[in-house]
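I hope you will forgive my troubling you with a question about protein structure. I should value your view on which stretches of the chain appear to form regular backbone elements. Here, with my thanks, is the record as I have it:
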Amino acid sequence: MEQFKEEFIQETREYIDAMNQQFIDLEKGDLQAVNEIFRLAHTIKGMAGFMGYKRVEELCHKLENVMGAVRDGKIQITSDIVDVLLSAIDLLEVLVDKIEEEGNDHQDISQVITELQRILKEDVKIETGGRQKTERIHEDEANIRINITLAEDCVMKSVRALLIIESLKEIGEIVGTVPDEDMMDSERFDGRFTVLMKADRLHDINEVLSKIGEIEKFEVEEIVSQNSKLESKEQVDAPNRKEKSDSSVQTKADIAPHPKKEKKIEFIRVSISQLDTIMNLVGELVINKGRLLQISSDYDIPELKEAVSIMDKIISNLQDEVMEMRMEKVERVFSKFPRMVRDLAKKLGKKVELIMEGLDTELDRTVLDQINDPLIHIVRNCVDHGIEYPDERKASGKSEVGKIRLSAWRDKNYIIIEIEDDGKGLDTEKIKKKAIEKGLISPDEAERMNEDDIKMLIFMPGFSTKEKASEISGRGVGMDVVKTTVEKLGGSVKLFSEKGKGTKIRIQLPPTVAIIKSLLIRVGNETYAIPISNVVEAIYVTSDSVKNIHGSEFLLVRGKLVPVFRLRDLFKINGSKSEKEVGIIVEKENEKYVLIADAITDQQEIVIKPLYGHLAKIKGFNGVTILGDGKVVPILDVSTLIGG
């Protein structure tokens, strides 16, 4: 069973994430979620039974019973019931962690089981009677009998049987099954079962079953009455399913069997470590591609140039494919927030609605993993600091239910993630006062700051406006981590807020941080790389075009003064400067700046190698790259280099 353990853990975690979202939808009144939760719980139960994880199986069985009672209208969903169901999901997650770490699910689940049984109350008796009834189904309650035999090599027969039953429910009413579902979950189940149902068209049943894999054969019969002959009968055998014809049997035109199309596996699971290894190997290819391009240019060998040109295209295509493999939808991170917001709001006594948009927007897996914690900090702060209590909102003329909008979209070369609330907004006077109290700024500095600068103080380490720290917030950590993490990824954070109206935080991120296009620039004898995504344009600069205003240098660009930063001075590089320098205009938080270098030497794709240890703390750099000639070149981080 060890060979299936990793797959079981991964799939179960995916189902747990899905169930968390479904329970939130159910609490909001979406009854369609009931069937989905029932299906997910039953699937996990079947897999756990196959793997021998009895506590997971028992917990999912109880969950299934509750959802069955909800579906039958015997239980009305309330917030308290959803609390119990979510606690069962939390326990299920604990059991999966234990299976991963210790190889077993030996954990006390009695408390949650008791809570689930308390929800069921009298429904236990009703359920038992239903099982006994299933053992002796009266055929006159159904008009169709389906005999199904699963393939001999079907690994999880009980799970496959459930999926078949769930598929049939979409086109008719299931009267019962023989054996019942409990028997199907046991080790004695041999893959043969009968479904009795009410449906209008046999053709639909045949079509559904023909599309489901791991069925050896199925037989669909129409039941007219107990004493009459069958009006139609059809039998299909796999893989060569043949129509069973008989002159004495009247076959309806709409039940002619359709040959089952051969199913092809279109997806396989690949471990993250393997993807990282492939990415590193592609990175080495890109580095050596640059080396070969340089050699072919230096020696001017036509045959080599042609071969290198072809290889360049192949490596570029390979690189694009690998980058695409690493991309993941932001939905993976966003999906955990509905549950988190719901729990926090309930704990604080607030009413909050979370709206999510742009779930299909894709980011590199590395970027997505690193942005996870910053987003959690921001969303928690929206609930705790931003959204007011219902009575406060009502008094200020707002709806009692506060809104948090979490959205993502692509803008040119960046991914934008925006978190917005309609809460009380930021109080600049309170922020200024707290910053002075904590010694983060002096009173003189506070007087010279404009409103936007004061708002950005919330990103300083140790800052918090909470009078008393709680488990949710108020310890002065979190927002500084947001800014630091985003800037390390080559992105930026912008804050918009209006007192009494709400707050909006906009995070701008590069879609990937592995391989990027860059400008190679020369300053003295040193070479540096600037990510193309930061560059707006490049212009020639002469000494006459630079203006000195109150001790600071500015460059006049199309009638606008743009602040100048000389890289030679920033990096303390000796030597005489060029007569004709190059100004690289870069953008940071919608503001333009000019970085002056001696020359632009090349534009090429580079592989980012991260800095570690003490080097990682140096501002102005976000890594290094290796050029084709083996030279190590620092990569400039515009966000921290300018006013960092």
User: Anything to note?
Assistant: Residues 140 and 227 are 10 Å apart (CA to CA). The radius of gyration is 32 Å.
